[in-house]
């Protein structure tokens, strides 16, 4: 019933996601101005920048939660903001979102939360009645296993720790079988050790999905330079709504950070 | 040299002395409150003399009410069951109607923002008219009996419960809903999957509250001929049959208390 959709074969050199000339303003205040960058399959791109740099606005545009005033976000060649009907729905499945506040349904179990990632793939009545077929439940459990929380499958989400909740949220994103994972400040609510673990997980997901499923790209915003340098392949520096730097992580040194944060 | 803090204190003390605008406002408010109560006292027809004369009469009635008349207890039990059933059916009907209206009347969830205000007005109108008044209308329309009471309860509770449901939905954490929407799930699917589990306990608790409330409210619906124990209450009062009246009041008290306890226990379990 859920026949695998034909995936556009991605040329490894061709970016998975391309943001082009993104601009957005709120009440005359510029949040984003001409932001362009791309994410390749298997790549982790970190977006750094001071508070108010436009990171959250950028991520809402990338996630399709807010349309940009100008420019486009293309995933597999299709514009997220302008897609309609079936294309829009397919893009929603292809782009998984991880939130700073995890956004799990507190009263549902970890497994039920991960199964929410299948809602875009199954008929609506299955969601309404919480009746998923065996393959979907198996996939969800595999995703929980992937984030190291198989043992917590039956536990209510609101009884898990912050780090565990974010891992369940990542498992939910994986259950979508996405091509791109968009994570807005995924570790800002976590302690440093837990944060590093969650970022390692995101990096491993990007790496090990490479080749077998067309490859997953990860784009995440962070506010700690050292975490970004450890986890990301490439770092985008955003300030005042503009891209100030777009460098391989190894080249994003103290001087680059100082320029970005303006000191 | 005086410090800045001391100067500020002196300014405050100076401002507190004498006839200030603030003090004037206080007096005006007090006078207005006094006038309000004086007028209300007249309008409400408060007459302590009548109370002094009436109380002994009430006492004599109470004395004649003993011993309570238990002959018709089976009838009273049946009528009380009728009251509880009216409240149960009316409340359930109201809750079922309230759920879709609550989505229409909650700003972040409504699929048609244009209908938000009309939906709220409609619910406020239902809420503003008491089930007693609705019951009066329905007794005229569908005739005497509990069915008129059920309709009265259903309409008033529809408005009240839907407004409370909408408020619960508006104050719920919408993060999980947004997250589930981004997985590609439809709006209704996302609401059912991400929002309903979180708000279901408080919604159920609200529904139980209205059932409990409606059992109490519908004991008097019989007075307008809308069935239940209220009918017997009114008959006894009309005949000044106090032993019978006392029995009825006792039955109502027992049932209402038992249901309050039960519903309270259930609501604590849900919390």
TrEMBL record, chain A:
MF terms in GO: ABC-type phosphonate transporter activity; ATP binding; ATP hydrolysis activity
Lineage: Bacteria, Pseudomonadati, Pseudomonadota, Alphaproteobacteria, Rhodospirillales
Protein name as annotated: Phosphonate transport system ATP-binding protein
InterPro entries from the UniProt entry: AAA+_ATPase, ABC_transporter-like_ATP-bd, ABC_transporter-like_CS, ABC_transpr_PhnC, MetN_ABC_transporter-like, P-loop_NTPase
All copies of domain ABC transporter, residue ranges: 17-257
Organism from which the protein derives: Nitrospirillum amazonense
Keywords: ATP-binding, Cell membrane, Membrane, Nucleotide-binding, Translocase, Transport
GO cellular component, one term: membrane
Gene3D superfamilies: P-loop containing nucleotide triphosphate hydrolases (3.40.50.300)
UniProtKB/TrEMBL annotation, chain B:
Listed transmembrane segments: 26-44, 84-105, 132-155, 242-259
Source organism, top-level taxon: Bacteria
Keywords: Cell membrane, Membrane, Transmembrane, Transmembrane helix, Transport
Gene3D superfamilies to which the protein is assigned, alphabetical: MetI-like (1.10.3720.10)
Annotated Gene Ontology cellular component terms: plasma membrane
UniProt subcellular location: Cell membrane
Pfam families noted in UniProt: BPD_transp_1
Membrane topology: Multi-pass membrane protein
Coiled-coil ranges from the UniProt annotation: none
SUPFAM superfamilies for the chain: MetI-like
PANTHER family, A to Z: ABC TRANSPORT SYSTEM PERMEASE PROTEIN P69, PHOSPHONATES TRANSPORT SYSTEM PERMEASE PROTEIN
Family label: Belongs to the binding-protein-dependent transport system permease family.
Name of the featured protein: Phosphonate transport system permease protein
